[in-house]
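User: My notes are a mess, but here's the protein and NAP's SMILES. Can you give me a structure?
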Amino acid sequence: MKSISSVRLTGLFLILSLLSITARAGFPNPDKPTVLITGANASHGLAFAEEYAALDWNVIATCRSPEKADRLNALASTHANVVVETLDIIDDEEIAALAKKYNGVPIDVLLNNAAINAFRFGISRFGKMDYDWFEEILEVNIIGPLKVSEAFQANVEMSEQKKIIAMTSTGGSIGTLEVPINIGYRTSKAGLNMAMKNYAIYLQRKGVIVGIIGPGTVDTEDYMNAADPTSVPRNYQMMMKAGRLVPRTAIDDMIALIDSMTMEDSGVFYQWDGEVLPW
Ligand SMILES: NC(=O)c1ccc[n+]([C@@H]2O[C@H](COP(=O)([O-])OP(=O)(O)OC[C@H]3O[C@@H](n4cnc5c(N)ncnc54)[C@H](OP(=O)(O)O)[C@@H]3O)[C@@H](O)[C@H]2O)c1
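Assistant: No problem, the inputs look usable. Here's the predicted complex:
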């Protein structure tokens, strides 16, 4: 039978190991959870980084070009709990290098946010399909999040919360499809949903929850409350008129949704407000 002092020593050793892992990651809040966000330099990703930073989480905010990420760098300069890292989600070497750097660091929430968004390339219709772009969007929006998730799976497994989240889109819902536009983007998100549903089933026995969330178009710039409504970009003015812009508070709602997720929510297709969407 082990003596009490040897049990105490083992406990102390475990605590010191955990503290040293967190210290290695350079975080000031060793007792707080950690989130890794992809595409954290803009829009939804930046808003998530800002909100998690305000909650005192340790934030690993990744993006393709940190040297150009002015707003994210400004956030990191005022928040010691935010680190900015380079990550292109389809660059195998960058993924491997970052996974090596954070080897042994628990990541409670891995937030797969980065994607090629529909708006960046206009409408893709039958008869006017750009198949090179179609291939690119499938690679970035489906394969990228899976590669990143697998690379950091061990970090998530060793964390307390154990959550891998995929930002998908209501546009990926086959069941609600009516108008045949944005085919590349919608196909990519339907594919991401299938990949993540598979992953959820696979990870169940490891206790890892896979959250699939359609965020809607969140008003990350708070245009809805602009002092001068004419200063709001035209496409956002149109979205507001059509009632298609989701308030900035949706970011907090999604954080609360992620917080509340249990194994029963793993592999379920949620909208930002917690409504379950049809596949
Ligand atoms: N906005 C919407 O209406 C809407 C609706 C439903 C779902 N979503 C989903 O919500 C998420 C965020 O959307 P958003 O509106 O914030 O998009 P966004 O403004 O277009 O930003 C996309 C982000 O992804 C990054 N990214 C693109 N390719 C990448 C790559 N290969 N590696 C790493 N990062 C890459 C971009 O980085 P760069 O700046 O370097 O290009 C940028 O940070 C996406 O998954 C999107 O599909 C958005």
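Confidence is low (pLDDT under 50) at residues 12-20.
User: Great, I'll file this with my notes.
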